[in-house]
């Protein structure tokens, strides 16, 4: 049945029954039970009927999703009932109507064969109409067909009330299947699986009070998901209520009273309910209820509506949607679902449904649609608003609108997103605006120090912004925010004044250029960020900054690789730098720093490519300075002074001398600085050695392109070193064995160390390596201990031209293997291709998966990138194109031999021998089809870098099932039937296509590949 037909049904249930026998007992009670569950039920209340079924009754049958036939002893004595039955079965055949027979005090076999007392009733009717043989035969056929359907037999169920309960519960489940949102639902595109996850988290059949929070930024789809879940499961509760827009309703006069009235009247099904909270909650404490509180901004709103959650019965459920995670914490909600953006292909489909009224863009609009997707970043609100706005507009209008949106938010999007901002205090608003204008992607430690110095109390402020989904602290401890939220912050600043010099923050190059060239700066300016690569030369007036007394942040940078300083000035006269905490000036033109940089305020000083001649020149009084970066300073002296000559050295956190080509040596105690955690000496091409180390807290050391020949044996004392970059150290010949004692070392980059011939034999002793980069090295032998690197995630071996001894196996848990133009690849390919040696991804995983997962934390998924155009032979199921379906074993859920599955795809590049040098992404969707249509699916996004393309690329990956996956199946009470595997490339990725794909079940070593019949795998290309 098409989902559009389902949604047009006037009635949920039509009841066919013999009135004289069951109207005043069973059927009446069944009808009441259905009504209590809000099931729209048609029942014919006429006592006197004619010989022919009425047209209105025919229409009612056709307008129903389900027909319930109550077979009683006298049912077959009524030609009216039998005509209804024929019509019902006709609708079953033509419209896939669901038919549920109830055998009330009659035997199904008697109905099927017209025997017993049921047959006696039919015989009497047969006697009266013996000449109408065609009609009689149609009735016999209908009775036989209906009695053969699965139904309910009253003698098999104890008590009439229990029979009615079972019938009603079955109807509820079937209605869920009928009215489950389909693909044509514009609201739920890409969110169907989220509804399933929410339902699973709620555990409707559990007997614990579960309150679930749905948390995310405005417009991300929280209300849509909550509404869809409510519509799906509310039938299972005695009372239910969806309180939409709690925040907005409570702001209206009398809003609290109105919401309480709606809550109590809906739950108690009484429009005239008395607003006595104590009395009514006492009644509700005995009921199974479902309540959705939508858009709650503070805990007091919930308190005013329902108090605590303690009065709820163990089978009740609460859903709270909010932008503020703290609301859920204060409410005692332990289960929180964080809403994320839509996947690209789902976002494009949703946009297309609004912009083109179809599932994909019109021809010629593909690239324009992709630009809109890049702008909306998966936020459903933005996608729908822009889709409706651009509907039926010409391409020229699209181009103009897209260009406008880069600097100005659409009013409808701005209105929704700004709600979260309006709820912040002044300090929190300043943090949000600074991040939006200046600190997107910056390290949280630096930002916290900056905000502390600005008096913004960042420890609590950043926490509030995170809880309200306005910013995110990523896994690399960087502060990020959604692109639309960044545009919101910048739009708020833009609206401060029509004149840029009267705004608090300048970040757009045109506005900044205007203020600086016309020397119109005012004391309202607190921060300036200028990309000099986007403007012409600016000849600054010496007193350009004089009026900017509140300036806290100054950054002149160039996004161009060969960028130059375009802010020219011969001297600065009384600059307003007294409050500056962050000072970054690429190509700073003066030989010394401004004289009035405040000693107690400056935290961050970076002058790459400047004319500064002395490292410490001008900073001798700067007591709080903790980061000095003088990268590529051509005039910087060849030798760094002793740390004792660096002012307040113990405050120094980072020292960056990148590109200081004259630097030849480091002071003996440079590694002893107490707070120094990052030292960057990249490009110091005359630096040949490091001093001996006695102690140190450095965690990141960058020596790229130096003349280092060897590392000191005392290197093992850098106990906190997590990142060591030795790339392009062409004089480096070996690494000390003591390196293997660095327990914190996570990244070892040896890219381009062309003289490096060996690695330490005990390399496998490293306990934390995540990435090992051996690109373009001359390694002749990979130590066998490498297989002990249990947490190694990425191994890069591109262009390694040495002659390698064969490895028996690569590191077990490596998640990304990149090995173009590398002879060692033959070892790995042999492993991948040899189905007996290596059911590698299955057998080795099975042997070590449990142990490693318990001890180290085994990744659920992994990804390998290799040059090649054939899928390994051991992939039992292969297909041409991008789509394949694998039918699952019948006992999959309870089969502990199945660990997960491997997948593969061949990407064919249309333009060979092109030096792409860029990243591209593709996504793989895994959709698990189940016996009860409880579809669970997920999408994995993978990224690959293509340098010099000479062949197709083979992408291998795996996914290991975890307890959560199986719990999802169990809670849905369903059995997986098939896995659908689909590879998607972004619309803008036109350089390659999917040539082949494959999928393979991973099992324990004692199992065989016969668990799945290859004939049960098929493709849909």
Automatic annotation (TrEMBL):
InterPro entries: Apaf_helical, C-JID, Disease_R_plants, LRR_dom_sf, NB-ARC, P-loop_NTPase, TIR_dom, Toll_tir_struct_dom_sf
Transmembrane segments: none
Protein name per its UniProtKB record: ADP-ribosyl cyclase/cyclic ADP-ribose hydrolase
NAD listed as a keyword: yes
Coiled-coil portions: 122-149
Listed PANTHER family: DISEASE RESISTANCE PROTEIN (TIR-NBS CLASS)-RELATED, LEUCINE-RICH REPEAT-CONTAINING PROTEIN
Gene3D superfamilies: Helical domain of apoptotic protease-activating factors (1.10.8.430), P-loop containing nucleotide triphosphate hydrolases (3.40.50.300), Ribonuclease Inhibitor (3.80.10.10), Toll/interleukin-1 receptor homology (TIR) domain (3.40.50.10140)
Upper taxonomic lineage: Eukaryota, Viridiplantae, Streptophyta, Embryophyta, Tracheophyta
Its EC number(s): 3.2.2.6
GO molecular function: ADP binding; NAD+ nucleosidase activity, cyclic ADP-ribose generating
TIR domain sequence ranges: 9-175
Domain of life per record: Eukaryota
Keywords for the protein's UniProt record, in alphabetical order: Coiled coil, Hydrolase, Leucine-rich repeat, NAD, Plant defense, Repeat
Entry's Gene Ontology BP terms: defense response; signal transduction
Natural source organism: Citrus x changshan-huyou
Pfam families associated with the record: C-JID, NB-ARC, TIR, WHD_ROQ1
Reactions catalysed: NAD(+) + H2O = ADP-D-ribose + nicotinamide + H(+)
């Amino acid at each position: 049945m098409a989902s559009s037909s389902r949604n047009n049904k006037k009635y949920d249930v039509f009841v066919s029954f013999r009135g004289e026998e069951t109207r005043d007992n069973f059927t009446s009670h069944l009808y009441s039970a259905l009504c209590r569950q809000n099931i729209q039920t048609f029942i014919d209340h006429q006592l006197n009927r004619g010989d022919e079924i009425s047209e209105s009754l025919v229409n009612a049958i056709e307008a129903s999703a389900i027909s319930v036939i109550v077979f009683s002893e006298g049912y077959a004595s009524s030609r009216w009932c039998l005509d209804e039955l024929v019509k019902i079965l006709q609708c079953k055949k033509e419209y896939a109507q669901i038919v549920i027979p109830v055998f009330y005090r009659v035997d199904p076999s008697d109905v099927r064969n017209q025997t017993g007392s049921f047959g006696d009733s039919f015989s009497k009717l047969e006697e009266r109409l013996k000449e109408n043989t065609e009609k009689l035969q149609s009735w016999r056929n209908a009775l036989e067909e209906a009695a053969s359907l699965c139904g309910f037999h009253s003698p098999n169920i104890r008590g009439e009330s229990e029979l009615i309960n079972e019938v009603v519960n079955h109807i509820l489940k079937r209605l869920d299947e009928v009215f489950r949102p389909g693909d044509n639902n514009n609201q739920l595109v890409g969110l169907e699986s989220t509804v399933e996850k929410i339902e699973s988290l709620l555990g409707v059949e559990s007997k614990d009070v579960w309150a679930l929070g749905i948390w995310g930024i405005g417009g991300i789809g929280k209300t849509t998901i909550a509404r869809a879940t409510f519509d799906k499961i509310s039938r299972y509760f005695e009372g239910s209520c969806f309180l939409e827009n709690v925040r907005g309703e409570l702001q209206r006069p009398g809003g609290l009273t109105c919401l309480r009235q709606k809550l109590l009247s809906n739950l108690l099904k009484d429009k005239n309910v008395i607003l006595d909270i104590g009395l009514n909650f006492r009644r509700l404490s005995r009921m199974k209820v479902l309540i959705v509180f939508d858009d709650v901004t503070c805990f007091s709103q919930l308190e005013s509506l329902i108090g605590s959650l303690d009065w709820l019965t163990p089978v009740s459920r609460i859903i709270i949607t909010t932008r503020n995670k703290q609301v859920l914490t204060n409410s005692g909600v332990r289960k929180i679902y964080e809403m994320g953006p839509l996947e690209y292909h789902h976002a494009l489909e949703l946009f297309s449904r609004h912009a083109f009224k179809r599932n994909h863009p019109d021809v010629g609009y593909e690239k324009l649609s992709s630009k809109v997707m890049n702008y909306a970043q998966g936020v459903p609100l933005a996608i729908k608003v822009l889709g409706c706005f651009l509907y039926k507009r010409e391409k020229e209008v699209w181009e103009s609108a897209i260009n406008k949106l880069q600097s100005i938010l659409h009013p409808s999007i701005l209105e929704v997103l700004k709600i979260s901002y309006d709820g912040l205090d002044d300090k929190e608003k300043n943090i949000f605006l600074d991040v939006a204008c200046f600190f997107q992607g910056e390290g949280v430690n630096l930002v916290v120090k900056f905000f502390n110095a600005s008096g913004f109390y960042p420890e609590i402020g950043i926490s509030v912004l995170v809880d309200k989904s306005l910013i995110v602290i990523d896994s690399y401890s960087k502060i990020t925010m959604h692109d639309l939220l960044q545009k919101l912050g910048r739009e708020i600043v833009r609206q401060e004044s029509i004149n840029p010099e009267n705004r608090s923050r300048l970040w757009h190059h045109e506005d900044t250029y205007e203020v600086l060239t016309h020397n119109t700066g005012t004391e309202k300016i607190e921060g300036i960020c200028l990309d000099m690569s986007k403007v012409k030369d600016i000849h600054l007036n010496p007193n350009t900054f004089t009026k900017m007394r509140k300036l806290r942040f100054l950054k002149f940078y160039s996004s161009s690789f060969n960028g130059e300083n375009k802010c020219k000035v011969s001297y600065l006269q009384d600059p307003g730098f007294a409050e500056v905490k962050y000072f970054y000036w690429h190509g700073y033109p003066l030989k010394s720093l401004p004289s009035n940089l405040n000693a107690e305020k400056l935290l961050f000083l970076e002058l790459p490519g400047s004319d500064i001649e002395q490292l410490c020149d001008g900073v001798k009084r700067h007591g709080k300075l903790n980061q000095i970066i003088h990268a590529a300073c051509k005039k910087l002296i060849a030798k760094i002074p002793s740390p004792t000559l660096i002012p307040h050295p113990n405050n120094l956190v980072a020292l960056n001398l990148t590109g200081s080509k004259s630097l030849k040596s480091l002071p003996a105690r440079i590694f002893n600085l107490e707070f120094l955690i990052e030292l960057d000496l990249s490009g110091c091409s005359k630096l040949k050695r490091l001093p001996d180390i006695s102690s140190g807290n450095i965690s990141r050391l960058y020596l790229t392109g130096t003349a280092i020949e060897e590392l000191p044996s005392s290197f093992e004392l850098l106990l906190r070193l997590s990142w060591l970059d030795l790339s392009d150290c062409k004089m480096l010949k070996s690494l000390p064995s003591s390196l293997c004692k660095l327990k914190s070392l996570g990244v070892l980059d040896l890219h381009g160390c062309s003289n490096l011939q060996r690695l330490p034999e005990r390399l496998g002793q490293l306990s934390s390596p995540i990435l090992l980069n051996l690109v373009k090295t001359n390694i002749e032998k990979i130590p066998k201990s490498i297989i002990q690197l249990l947490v190694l995630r990425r191994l890069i071996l591109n262009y390694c031209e040495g002659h390698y001894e064969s490895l028996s196996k690569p590191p077990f848990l490596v998640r990304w293997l990149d090995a173009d133009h590398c002879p060692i690849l033959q070892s790995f390919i042999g492993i991948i291709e040899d189905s007996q040696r290596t059911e590698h991804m299955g057998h080795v995983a099975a042997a070590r998966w449990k142990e490693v997962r318990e001890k180290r934390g085994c990744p659920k998924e992994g990804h390998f990138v290799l040059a090649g155009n054939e899928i390994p032979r051991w992939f039992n199921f292969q297909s041409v194109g991008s789509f394949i379906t694998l039918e699952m074993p019948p006992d999959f859920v309870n089969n502990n031999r199945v660990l997960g599955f491997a997948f593969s795809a061949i990407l064919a590049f249309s333009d060979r021998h092109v030096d792409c040098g860029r990243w591209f992404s593709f996504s793989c969707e895994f959709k698990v089809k189940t016996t009860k249509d409880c579809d669970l699916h997920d999408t994995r996004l993978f990224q690959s870098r293509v340098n010099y393309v000479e062949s197709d690329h083979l992408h291998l990956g795996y996914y290991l099932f975890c307890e959560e996956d199986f719990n999802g199946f169990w809670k849905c009470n369903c059995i997986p039937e098939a896995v659908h595997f689909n590879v998607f490339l972004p619309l803008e990725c036109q350089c390659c296509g999917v040539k082949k794909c494959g999928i393979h079940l991973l099992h324990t070593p004692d199992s065989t590949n016969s668990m799945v019949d290859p004939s049960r795998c098929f493709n849909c290309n």
